[in-house]
Amino acid sequence: VQLQACGGGLVQAGGSLRLSCAASGLTFGSYIMGWYRQAPGKERELVASIGLGGSTYYASVVKGRFTISRDNAKNTVDLQMNSLKAEDTAVYYCAARAAGSTKYDYRGQGTQVTVSS
Questions:
Q1: Tens digit of pLDDT for each residue in 15-33?
Q2: Which end of the chain is more exposed for a tag (fewer CB within 10 A), N or C?
Q3: Three-class secondary structure of residue 2 per DSSP
Q4: Residues 6+ apart with CB under 8 A from 59
Q5: How confident is the model over 31-65, as pLDDT tens digits?
Q6: Burial class of 16 by CB neighbour count within 10 A (0 to 12, 13 to 18, 19+)
Q7: For the stretch 86-100, what's the b/e string if a residue is b when 16 or more beta carbons lie within 10 angstroms of its beta carbon?
């Protein structure tokens, strides 16, 4: 299984970035997809997830600013991040969780997002 994330970079506060994750080696439509992030000295946190039918979850700190979407035909999951804040600076990872599983089974390499204030 490979989860390849891209789209990170340096952006000013208030700006936008779009992260994308391409999945291979798994039946994409059978997995709940999520985006985690980890900032230096902080625990990893789940930012957003999207279910098999498109239901979404957002952490309270990003709700209204971030939007997660998936394309089952392309095996991709995106995270549109708007109104970025300095505290959004972190390494962002995409992850896959089989339906019915209580934990994420696969996690890709991270992509760095840096928001300058």
A1: 999 999 999 999 999 999 9
A2: C
A3: strand
A4: 45, 46, 47, 48
A5: 999 999 999 999 999 999 999 999 999 999 999 99
A6: exposed
A7: eebbbbbbbbbbeee
